Each structure stands twice: as C-alpha cells, then as structure tokens.
C-alpha cells in the first residue's frame, strides 16, 4: 500500500505553547488523509484540517477524526471535506461534496445538510463560506447561495443567481473594499457583482482557461492566478485583467497564494520543481 507523509507546520501560541512549536503529522498515525484541502483555526483555538477523506480537529494535544457514519444523521454528510469556516456570530460551517453543515461544539455533532425553500436538501458540492461586510453569509460552490436563516429546525438557503446567468461551479469568492463581490469559475472566468447588483463578466479566454486562485492584496489590488498563463491583476482604468507575472510559470507552478510578509506582498506556490516564492511584480 502506498503511504503518504503529511508535513504541517503549525505555529501555535496561547493555549498550545510559548513561542513557536513545530510538529510533524503523518496520515499513517495522526490524521485521516494527506490530501489536504484547507486548514482553519476557529475562535476556540481548534485547528480544523479538511481532507479528501474526513475532517480532522486538533486541540493542541490530539486529533479527533470525523467521517460519515451510515445511518447517523449527526455525522459528516460526506468524507470529502473542502473547508471549515466560522462567521462573526460563532457559527462553524463545514463545506463538503454533499452540502453545508453546522458543527455543534456542545454535542460534538453536525446538523443536517442545509435546505432551501420547498424543504429540499441542498446536497451540492460547496467549497467555501464568505461573510460579507453587511453580515450576509454566502456559501460558494456548485450553486452560489445565501444562508438566510439558522434555527432549531436547521439551516436554510436560497440560490443567488438564476439559471440564465449560468453562474455556477464557483471556486473562489471575495468582497473588495468598494463593495464589489468577485466570483471565480476556473473555466468561465471571473464575475463581478457591483453594489447595485449588476453582473460584469470577464471571460477566461482573455486570461487563462484554468483559473485557480483569486486574492486581494493588502493595498486592495485584486489578483487572479491561472495554472496555464500565470498571474493577472485587475486594472480599474481599463476594467480588465492584465498579466503581471507570467515568468513564474518557469517554476512549473500549479498552486499559489498571496501573502504579506513584513509589509511586502509576495506570492508563494508549489509545482513540479518544488516550492517557490517571488516578490510582487
């Protein structure tokens, strides 16, 4: 059997350790899978590791592994977990290939998957949660939705866009400082919903046919990363995305993220030649 080693650098403080504490965790002994989709820390200090085969919670001492249990409606809906996020009210959302659930820390269980009007379950794939500045919470994935109500009877959603707009399969979503909401589809491009609700479409054919990441820099600049042609920056003057770092493709980069290090913007990523980093262009 093929074994994978997952190396995670956890910089823990407060309840975990003083200074920095480095530990290595293996999928053979510690967590459910080495195929990690996201890592998130909630306000309790718990670290959630979402993987393609289960959800892992680290309390500073040990891991607790959550998986779907057939016949148990309080377990994970699906073992392929994309992310865990928390909103300003303390709700902890779990996005999987079979909907969005809420985690209940008091009972250590999960709610039923979310529902929409008509009382049908939203058993679609969801990748992430975005809380807007006005307090609304969006669930991003196969169909972008808004979480309209959370109560004893569950969590309710409504679809945000009609079928004729064909805004679906969203892999990334952010809100900029001006109140524009940007949604990224890997193959169809980028959509911008302005403050009055008008939709603007930026076709991927003018950028990259395999968009992977959308990020907002510390100065408010919007970036989109494509796995084929590299990095693009949104230019307000021309209302278009312009290439800024195609040379990074020389690294064979397939994954990247925007970071701020000591007040400077930089990009980091990994590819065929291993990890790399670069200054902002």
Overall geometry comes to: globular
Trace the largest sheet across and list its strands.
10-9-14-13-12-11
- Average of pLDDT: 79
Order of helices and strands: EEEEEEEEEEEEEEEEEEEEEEEEE
Uncertain runs: 1-18, 247-254, 258-281
Question: Into which percent range does the helicity of residues fall?
Answer: under 10%
* Amount of beta strand: over 45%
The number of strands is 25
Rounded to the nearest angstrom, the distance between the terminal CA atoms is 44 Å
Please compute the radius of gyration using only Cα atoms: 19 Å
Main sheet properties? 6 strands, mixed
Count of alpha and pi helical runs: 0
Structural class: mainly beta
Folded structure, characterized:
This protein has 281 residues and is an all-beta fold. It has strands spanning 36-41, 47-51, 54-58, 63-66, 81-86, 92-96, 99-104, 109-110, 115-116, 120-121, 126-131, 137-141, 145-151, 154-159, 170-175, 181-185, 189-193, 199-203, 211-216, 222-226, 230-235, 240-243, 253-261, 264-271, 274-279. A hairpin with a 5-residue loop joins strand 1 (36-41) and strand 2. The protein is globular and about 50 Å long. The termini are far apart.
Topology:
Layout: E1 36-41, E2 47-51, E3 54-58, E4 63-66, E5 81-86, E6 92-96, E7 99-104, E8 109-110, E9 115-116, E10 120-121, E11 126-131, E12 137-141, E13 145-151, E14 154-159, E15 170-175, E16 181-185, E17 189-193, E18 199-203, E19 211-216, E20 222-226, E21 230-235, E22 240-243, E23 253-261, E24 264-271, E25 274-279
Parallel strand pairs: 9-14
Antiparallel strand pairs: 1-2, 2-3, 3-4, 5-6, 6-7, 7-8, 9-10, 11-12, 12-13, 13-14, 15-16, 16-17, 17-18, 19-20, 20-21, 21-22, 23-24, 24-25
